[in-house]
Protein: GOST seven transmembrane domain-containing protein
Organism: Lactuca saligna
Amino acid sequence: MRFIRGSNDCEFFSYKHYQIGILISLLSLSVIDVVKGSIHEYKNEGFIPRFNSFFVHGGSEGMYASKVHNNGSTKDKPINGKSFVRFESIIFRRPKEVAAKQNEMQQSTGLVEAILVEVKNRDKIGGSYLNSNAICCTPELANDGSCKVGEVIIRQDPDNPGWPKRIQTPFEGKKEEAKMLLQTVEINRTGMYYLYFMLCDPQLKGTTMSGRTVWRNPNGYLPGKMTPLMPFFGFMSLTYLILGLLWFLRFVQHWKDIIQLHYHITMVIGLGMCEMALWYFEYANFNATGSRPIGITLWAVTFSAFKKTFSRLLLLVVSMGFGVVRPTLGGVTLKVLLLGLIYFVASEALELVENLGNINDFSGKARVFLVLPVALLDSCFILWIFSSLSKTLEKLQTRRNMGKLELYRKFTNALAVSVLVSVAWIGYELYFNASDPLSELWQRAWIIQAFWAVLAYVLLVVICILWAPSRNPTRYSYSEVEDIEEDGISLTGSGVKVSGDLIERKPAVITDHVFEVLEEDKRE
């Protein structure tokens, strides 16, 4: 699981009044060192001061409501159908000098609170309704009985009693450690939830915490944003399988007329099938265990990066007319391979950070530096592809090969439409992220990722249709005769006329000139 912080966390509370300032700072400073799927681990996390409180950001996830409740019907499988957040092995440690100053006989000498709140109830945390900038209750605010000194100010949601959820763990006497009891908080309403561990006592400055929390949805440990992606990857695996079978049947039927380009298309179909299958099994394992298996994830990431690279190279060489208007790429082969290698490395690095990297403020900035090279390389591919298409179309018009010209016009139109749709979708994605800084629309977020997979598949289907194996491969395969015609080699004198793909011999016309010379001699 990867925490979504940065811009999302920077606006957790309401946009009204002081609430922006409070939780902009809270969430922008949140740091989780190690994250394993829906098992959020904390290792000696320090509490960060903000206003009159100290906090550690415990995580945020989209959660679906439990399908069953504690009614004894799930005795054999107590977690089946339930949605919950479970606190495991949580230990708070305060500095020795702070513990030494406490009264040995006093039962509570410090308090840590775990606050679990649904994002729509963000305005119920803090003293905004009391016209105060405080997060923790002060003696002045406690005078009217609205809160207790030393505790976080919380107003209960009348539509959901007991929420936002507060779990308290006290320090006892002079003990340096306070252990949080094993607790499970059941989620009874679908929403985006944020977890914070908070201190209100300034004497507890320097306190750290360790342990973990386990977040589970009714059908497994997949975070809410990622839950729809598992069946989606399963569906895409099936579509690639169907495309592969249809292509294989066509391939076998016309195996004598196969050209080099068909092998490249076959490889892209195979890579896409493996990529979707690996992502499906990776998500299935994640859903069952709560952790992302590094082995499967690494393979999925590598296949994804390689398939993206090879797909772009396929589009580029097709646009250059490889196997159609030119037998080889010639001198640009090295440049094409170099661009592909650089793109693979950049794409692999980005995928690794997104799927295996620890998510904190630094890695968020690091991700920006990894996105920029990939975006720049994509732009290079697009410019080079359309530039090559323009030259290929011009060459086909010169040769007057209407069959191939029509083929490439269709391909150009399909590619142009895909680029326009991509630009429009990028605009929508930017709007979506800007208008939903707190991930309140998390149930629709999976569509952003799914769109690109569908677009790549559709474009591959178009290429398969246009360049499908057939009994007449000359309609799109390279022909040496066309090069002879393009070079302007006139074979008229030898009685050869070149037209399209046909070569026709005609009687020599040199005799006409001989008769003209003889006529002139007679006159003289």
